[in-house]
Structures are given as C-alpha cells and as structure tokens.
Fold Alpha/beta hydrolase.
Amino acid sequence: MTYPIIEEDGFKYIEAGTGETLVLLHGLMGELSNWELVIEYFKDRYRVIIPILPIYDLPILTLGVKALSRYLHRFLKYKNLNQVVLIGNSLGGHVGLVFTVAHQEFVKALVLTGSSGLYENAFGGSFPRRESYDYIKEKVEFTFYDPATATKELVDDVFKTVNDRSRVIRILTMAKSAIRHNMAKDLSKITIPVSLIWGKNDKVTPPEVAEEFHELLPNSELNWVDKCGHAPMMEHPEIFNAFLEKFLDRILLK
C-alpha cells in the first residue's frame, strides 16, 4: 500500500482525494491493499477513507460486529463526516449494515461486496490448521475464482496472522459474532440506495446470499461479476469500479 497510515486520537486510517466521501470497510483478515485499485480509480473525484477496524485492539470481551459499528460511529463523528457512501467487503459489509440500521442519517448509500450478515462459509467450512502453509494457501485460494489471485505475499500475510495466538483468538471471536448476528429481520429498515456487487463464483458468501440481500433490501440493485470469487475489487477491479462508478453517478450526481 503506497498510502501512509494516519494515526491520531486512537484512530488509524488512510485518506486520499477530495469531494463526496467514500468510506471503505475491510474484511476480517482483509489488508488495506485489497482496496488499492479502488482508491487509485476514485481519488481524483472523491474523498476516499479507509479506517482500520480495531479487530486486534478492542477488549476481547466486547469484540463483535456491534463493537466495530460503534467504533465506526466514533470515527465518523471524529472526522465530522455524514452522508457518506459506505463500501464494505465481507465482514466490512456486515459492519456497514449494522451501522446503517443504527445510524442511517450518516449514510447516503451503501455498497456491499461479498458481505456477511446472512450467511458465510468462512475458510471453506473449517478453521485453518495454523502450522500448515500449504493448507493456508489452499484456503486463501478458496476465496478467489482464479487461485493465482492468492499471491505469495497475500498467503504469507494470512499465514503470519493465523500463527499469532492472540490474533487467531480474536479472529475466531469475530467470526462467531458475525455468524450469530444475522441481519435478515433488520434489512427492511435500510431504505437508502444499496448496490450489491457480487462474484458469481463466490464460495464464501454464495450467489444465493446476494439474491437474498437483494430481496430483503427495499432499495437495492444487484450486479454480477462473472468468473469472480469473494473479493471482486481485487479479482476484477475494472468491472467492480465500473459498477461502483455507475452507482455513484446515479446517487450523487443526479
């Protein structure tokens, strides 16, 4: 990631550009670099901010999707932001949903890609055996349609994370919280525009999850990315950015 991490008043984040604000929310083990091509594409027209969600910093007894939503609320108030577009992948989408239900006045629109909140098949149904690099590699590849997207650098990062005992406990705690916190009964409360940008070959949050989100969110659109897994902004950034740009043009420039 070529952008410096800003640290101030207990918050860590990346910021680039000016204009209407896009807030990008990363997944459970998502690196900030997952969003790099989105930042590059939109920073000349929008203010793009990525807060680092404090998965490894919050007290473990309170760690969960609601705690991350509260953190996001504090961050947006600290930055004096409202009417932002929240864009979340995987757990980040789930946090965006929880936040929007509680604080819809802060959010102009929501974009979900491979979001949890209804169902997810994390790590292909089992948590990785920490000591096996090949096993971790296989499970990271499971995230994508094209295994080549799972670069050695990405696999190395995940391997390092799951071999840190403190971090792996927090990952498990966070994953359990996400599974318990099903959003189905709350989605009808979200009346702002929502764009679903989904990999047709997502094995973590499969296509039927996107279809259910589309059915339950009253003001949503569903866009498919072919030959794509759980992270369209990484695997097919040009297509992801095109869908996002069209949505932003519709909701922000009308």
Summary: The domain at 6-253 is CATH 3.40.50.1820 (Rossmann fold). The CA atoms of residues 34 and 234 lie 6 Å apart. Residues 165-180 form the longest helix (16 residues). Strands lie at 6-8, 11-16, 21-25, 47-51, 84-89, 107-113, 194-199, 220-225.
